[in-house]
Amino acid sequence: MATESLGWWGVPIAIIGGTLRGSAPFLFVSLGECLTEKSGKINLGLEGTLLIGAMSGYAVSYLTGSPWSGVIVAGIAGLLLGAIHAYLVQLPRVNDVAVGIAMIIFGSGVAFFLGKPFIQPPAPQLPAIALGNWSNLPQVKAALQISPLFLIGIAIAPLMTWFFRNTRWGLYVRAVGDSPEAAKAMGINVTWVRTLCILLGSSLAGVGGAYLSLYYPGSWNERISSGQGLMAVALVIFARWQPLQCLYASLFFGGAQAVGPALQSVGIQSFYYVFNTLPYLMTLVVMGISCSPKRTISGAPGALGK
Amino acid sequence: MTGERSQWEAIVIPLAAVVSALVIFGIFCAFAGANPFSVYGSIYRAAFGSWSIFQGTLLRAAPVMLTALCTVLPARLGLTIIGNEGALVIGGLGAVVAGLALGSLPPVLVQFSMAIAGIVCGGVWIMIVGALKHYRAVNETISSLLMNYLAIALLNELVNGPMRDPSSLNKPSSFSIAEANMLGRLPGMRVHYGLIYGLVACVIAYILLQRTTFGFGVRTVGGNIRAAQIAGLPVGAFTLIICFLAGSCAGLAGMVEVAAVHRSANESLNANYGYAGVLVAFVARQNPLVACLVAVFLGGILASGGILQRNHNLPDATVLVFQGIVFLTVLFSDSLRLPQLQKKA
Prior knowledge:
The complex is a heterodimer.
Chain A: H1 10-38, H2 46-64, H3 67-89, H4 96-115, E1 129-130, H5 138-143, E2 145-146, H6 148-166, H7 168-178, H8 180-185, H9 190-214, H10 231-238, H11 243-265, H12 272-276, H13 278-290
Helix pairs in contact in A: 1-6, 1-9, 1-10, 1-11, 2-3, 2-4, 2-9, 3-4, 3-9, 6-7, 6-11, 7-9, 10-13
Chain B: H1 7-31, H2 36-48, H3 51-76, H4 84-101, H5 107-136, H6 140-160, H7 194-211, H8 213-223, H9 225-230, H10 235-262, H11 273-283, H12 288-303, H13 305-312, H14 318-333, H15 339-344
Helix pairs in contact in B: 1-2, 1-14, 2-3, 2-12, 2-13, 3-7, 3-10, 3-11, 3-12, 4-5, 4-6, 4-10, 4-11, 5-6, 5-10, 7-8, 7-10, 7-12, 11-12
């Protein structure tokens, strides 16, 4: 009974499963980017950070046998890459978009360079929490698995919202992002606030990379990140710089990403690549609708891009 | 970009940046267990060692010259566009379609129509980015980045589906254009005519930007968009035209790759020449003529990837690390000024 094909019912189940598996990297990079942009700086280089995180997390998990130390090291590796970004973008006359592109090249180069020996051997993976035991359908059981790391990410989103709204430091970050001059007049060290935001944001992206290599897809290779890091910037615009909305946006994008493979599983092969572009296409459409030349987008930090 | 550099500074600072990049990369190689001096020796020999080897460098430089213009032209208007890879892919697809559909015409006409198809397809592709920017204020960097993914997906969809040559088993490809319709080689060289396309496009771009009223208007908008609007300059038309020209250069690079190298459209089109173009544009400080030279330099680095692996046991990603370091130091150097010269100015 359980082994027979689910037919079309397999599609929504596969999409839900894909969403639960595939949303976490989007969530971590978008939360990291959100924190960075709230302080008024853009980090376009999170793709490189994601790859460094994936590589270092996988390598440490393989060498020590502990996937959680891999996650921690991935966060530290992201922090180090963020330090370069934080230093360069706060120099006068340096274009932060260009630094982001350079960091993608540099970060992916270092990740591929150091990661070469780790492509073959299997590393211990993060555990999964099974939520589907109530069902006796194997497809449902397989779909309803969730990583504790994803749960941590889900917890960070409301926490970050609370941080921005209700804490002194959250106020500092928002002040720096909206008007560095006013923040300076309040006696806030703008450089330090921005540096900390970029560092923490990068380290979140590094953790997102560890999720890629240690949970899903759960291996290390040079094609592991299919542009999730690049989409962080778009996701944050989509989420209007609200951490909680970053969570919803990530689920939405993770779901869109799962449509192509889900349809493929029921034998719809045509337009496989087109379905895979849904997240990119949606971002473009959403930006086209929500941006306007007459006003800046509501929620955007005032000093962003200046 | 406040504070123009003096001419002296414009030469000394980037050179110093490249030299320090060489030092940093040398240290990196030493940590990786390779002798930096012999690594540089290998890179030099693999890139510029002999006339025949140098031709290999030029072959790689040709498409990069064209893709660099895709970032250079909009940069003068104040736009940061990084959709070079996508425009190259779309241009290549367009060129293949034209080459297959019109394959029975005389070769010169086929090549001409392939070039036009590449130019128009790439141009329209980036013009979409410009239109989104002008009419909807969508950030051009992000939209052009996303469109790279759309272009690559379109390529995969077409060469796996409607355009697939059933005989291409391991590497799905489109049907191939006829041998006679391919771009020839320059007399006495193994470099194809794409190099001429690249050089001519860079010179035209330079003249257009520096020696024409249109270029002056573009640079005015790039300098101060509010002032340009008040002066009555057609900012929207400039945006669309420049984006079209930018995309058409990258599209032409796609045509060159198809018509002179691959013969058909397949995943080899997506060989990162687009991202290399972004790097070249920034290192060349958005100057089309300097971009030609930097493209040759980068072509040499790209050509040396294989030898680093064979002779020094360094992974092929070493080349990527080197590019990243050069890019970062050049950007760092943007913040520098020579102190004594600043006083004089």
